[in-house]
Amino acid sequence: MAEQKHLSDESWAAVLSSELDAASQAHLKGCETCRAEDQALKSVLDGARESLSAAAERSEVFWIRQRAEINARIREQREGRHRLVWAAAAGFVALAASLLLRPAPQRPAPAPAVTDQELLMQVESSLSREVPEALAPSDLITQELAEASQKNSNFRKGERK
Amino acid sequence: MAGTTGVEHEEFDAIVREHQRRIYRVLLAILRDPDAADTLTQECFLRAYRKRESFRGESSVGTWLVRIAINLARDHIRSRRRGFWQTLLGSGESVMAAAAAVPDRAASPERALAAREEVAAVWAAVEDLSPQQREVFFLRFSEEMPLEEIARTMELQTGTVKSHLARAVSAIRQRVKRQGR
After folding, report:
1. A96 to chain B nearest CA, in Å?
2. Which chain A residues are closer than 8 Å to B30 by Cβ?
3. Which residue, among B79, B71, B84, has the nearest Cα to B33 in the 3D structure?
4. pLDDT tens for residues A84-140?
5. Are B176 and B118 in contact (CB under 8 A)?
6. Is A87 helix (H, G, I), strand (E, B) or coil?
7. Where are the alpha helices (DSSP H) in B32-157?
8. Among candidates B115, B165, B180 on the partner chain, residue whose Cβ is nearest the Cβ of A47
9. CB half-sphere exposure, B69, CA atoms < 13 A
């Protein structure tokens, strides 16, 4: 039953984080078992911290080399970015130059302008024609047929005489 | 931390100088691999340099860097999970090597040996924790970060940090007690 009164895991986490509440602090003060465990745990955790620090200890040369590598990689990255910007700029300039220096496309020659006067004359001429311009070929055929018919008629008259 | 002028580059170099040991230590604690810790320390500062525009100063530079380091370590563990677990499972020697580095504070060789074994028991217990519990444990007991800062660094609620810590402490207490029997 006395076991239940000892500090919980949460309280132990608080003890080791130095964030213990008043009640747990009072318990720790009066409980020899918990006090002994507190000392043992703190000692073990101190040892673990020290062992990790020792494992992470490196010579000054290591840190200098690491900084040099970081700086070199940053420089590389910056130069890479500059190279990219320059490449993009060069590409843009080349594109602009090719657009500017390309020979202008040849435009079709404009249709000859017709003055108002000429247009009026064309209309007048069309109106004065007996047959519209579009029907001129048929008019020619009709005339030829009429002439042939006339000749034929004259020939018959000559035979009768 | 903004811009790329020479002065700011020097400023960044000073940041590297100030924090590189801590970042390396955090990465070594999580990864237990000196080469990976070295590579990821470099990567951490490189990433910080690339993202320096996004640093708003809401937390300290140290907290910001530790957050980047933890994310890198998680990615590393995810990408090499099998290798990582093999390292963990076969890490008895490295644990003992770390434990052997404990300064001899004990009066007798027997006590020194017992202290080494206790420290080894702590590492063994830590290795059984979940990655998040392990990270919380290292940030609290190795880096001595306040709980609120750990919460900010790991983007967790303070209550969650406390429960991770309680779980870690419970595992360590049990392991140390077993060791003492």
Report:
1. 30
2. none
3. B84
4. 777 777 777 778 777 777 776 677 676 667 788 888 888 888 777 776 677 777 777
5. yes
6. helix
7. 34-50, 61-79, 81-89, 92-100, 109-127, 131-137, 147-154
8. B115
9. 30
Chain A neighbors of B97, CB-CB under 8 A: 55
pTM of the model: 0.65
A110 to chain B, minimum CA–CA distance in Å?
59
CA dihedral B25, B28, B30, B31 (to 10 degrees): 160
Q: Are A126 and A133 in contact (CB under 8 A)?
A: yes
Cα B31 from chain centre:
8
The alpha carbon dihedral of A82, A84, A90, A93 has a sign of: negative
CB pairs under 8 A between A and B: 121
Which residues contact residue A152 at a Cβ distance below 8 angstroms, ignoring those fewer than 6 apart? none
Q: List the structure tokens of B16.
A: 């590297």
User: Taking a C-beta distance cutoff of 8 angstroms, is the pair A77, B46 a contact?
Assistant: yes
Contact B156, B114 (CB under 8 A): no
Residue with tokens 């230590």: B25
Q: Are B180 and B162 in contact (CB under 8 A)?
A: no
- pLDDT tens for B117-171 read 888 888 888 888 998 999 999 999 888 899 999 999 999 999 999 999 999 989 9
User: What is the value of ipTM here, to two decimals?
Assistant: 0.76
